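Researcher: I've been going back and forth with a colleague about how Caspase domain-containing protein might be arranged in three dimensions. Neither of us has a model we trust, so I'd like an independent prediction. The organism is Haladaptatus pallidirubidus, in case that matters for your notes. Sequence below.
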Amino acid sequence: MQPAFEPPPNRPGLLIEDPIESVRFALYTPDQSTLRPADPKTFHFPVDAAVEFETKTVEIPKLTGVYVRTRDGDLAASYNVTDDETTVSAGAYTLELNTAPMKLYLTVESGVHIEKRNQSVILDFDEKIPVRVGARSFHEQPAGTVTVTDDIEDSMRAISLFGSALKTTSPERSFPTLRGHPPLIERGDDFSVPDGLERPETGVELVVPRQRAAVYTATPLAYYLGAKVVPGRYPRLAASGFEHPLTGSGGFENAVANTLQQVFFFDCLTRTEGYYQVDLYERQQIVPLVELDFAALYDASLAERLAAYLSVPFETLEPHLPDWHLTTDVVPAANNVESLPFVANDLSLVRCPPKPTTRTVRSQPKPLTEFYRADFVRSTGSSTSVNDIVQPDPSNSVEHVWIGDGYPLGSNKTTVESCRRRIEGTAPDGSSIEIHVVCNDERMEEEGVVNEFYGSRDLIEFDVGISYDLTTDELAELFAKPLDFVHYIGHVDDQGMQCSDGYLDVRTLDVVRTKAFLLNACRSYEQGMALVENGSRGGVVTLSEIANVSATKVGRALARLLNIGFSLRTGLEIAKSEILTGYRYITVGDGGLGLVQCESGCPLHLRVRNEKEDSFEVDIMVYPSQIRGIGTLFRPHLNDDDTQYLNSGVLDSWIVSEAELDEYLNCGVLPVTFENDLYWSDEITAADLR
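Model: Here is an independent structure prediction for Caspase domain-containing protein. You can compare it with whatever you and your colleague have in mind.
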């Protein structure tokens, strides 16, 4: 399935849709021109599909930078939204748009004038000319499947092939679009590799102990470096006479994590000498601290770059590294080897915990005036099973995933099956995002208004329904439909999900086609996990009893966050900050799943503090997504600075005036945290925060 092109529904121009990722983007023109198919091979950069039309002007309906390149890909000029205008004389150009939910290129033969008008960027040509638009989906398919036995050296051989997915071994591999999806792994009786699957000739070896935990931990580093994984007593990274030990006071796991972060970070800095010569904030911070020639490193061999990068003490870089986006705990069991391609594709740090610590999740005290989402007459106890709940060690990353038995407190329990559904995406049955809200208890109708929070987005069609007091058959029929999201409000106990005529135990369902869900009910984790095992990609559940007031706050906040492009996992992190017992909510399945694309490219979260009487201090926190992974460039647009940032964690702090903060709040719907309370940018002004 390739990107599709058609006229927009309300204005002349071009609507581009990626059916697999369910994302859309529009370009507007003064008049509606005939759309004609174009040859994707005529573009210098790879595209999946292309179209041609005639126009003198193209309006990009959002603030975005534009790279103007020659047909050979060399940078001729660039436009930043802080510029008044940029003009290039007549020539043959490829225009690359920075912010879109798919990769977009326009090819023209003309002079080009670029300027900002309100919240749009305008491309104006010398006259009415043919314009070709090429689109490439961010969706990635693995090139094949490697079969391994339970011999640990088979796992080493398979992981050594992960680098075959890299589209380059230059520093540009730090861009997520140039890191393809590693081949899949399945277990079998013999080791086998599909024809044509070969590791790149990097000359890099990763020597690790012949232990499953060590091999799993090294996987993302091996993938990113295109390294061959070999057994050895002393763990180290080796390339053309250069060696870097993977030992130290923090142990092997810590050494691998630091090495991956350090190499990736320096690649991001070095790539600014290549196709994307931007003013990168992180490079500004590091240049005074190190004696590295980044221009020379850009053209150096991989071994030379590694030697230079790793000559810098990690302690020098650590204060300036972006917050790493994800840590995954993988229990080192043989069956979990099949999860490694997905962990590597996410470029997650990996830890391999020993037998996990179990914990009882206690119920809250039950004051007589409080209403809970559980039937206490039927309740079998005041806590979930000790054997079910695990407590992972804290991580320093923005998000955390658990792969193994048990349900992790405050984390995302994922499975190989739910990850596989990520790459097995198919076009939706309809053109709209289908969401259904189910309220099966009239006392919880206050949360039922979440149906109003879904669907308020330009270019995205929503079909939002709401039902009350469904029967068991009706709820089963609902889960059998190919809905994008089901938001369930009601009760869950050991028998299942409460309906008007009894309980539906989803473990008995043969078919589940609902893509994602929220089961906003007490102790809903087993029912949620059953939905994932039977066909869903992911969802949000609870580990214990939840007070109705708390559940309503989380449900309403999560609905808003999903509607503006947050994933299940990142949305829940912010939503559960509304209540003291937020750790009792977790994601199951593919927590990186989002319902829609984020208008700013990456989801944003503002943290605001009063600085002085006439100013505020603002932190901007950015979350990588499955469409725009770690390594993407991000420009905050908070002031007139052209500086760009790497897109993970807290970017920086800014001191802004009341007028500047109001202008930023008016740019779109964002979650805003002020004095530990959650607000929404479309409902407040700077004056409200005084």
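Researcher: What would you highlight for our discussion?
Model: I'd start with this: The longest helix spans residues 251-270. After that, consider the following. The chain has four domains: 4-136, 145-345, 355-589, 604-689.
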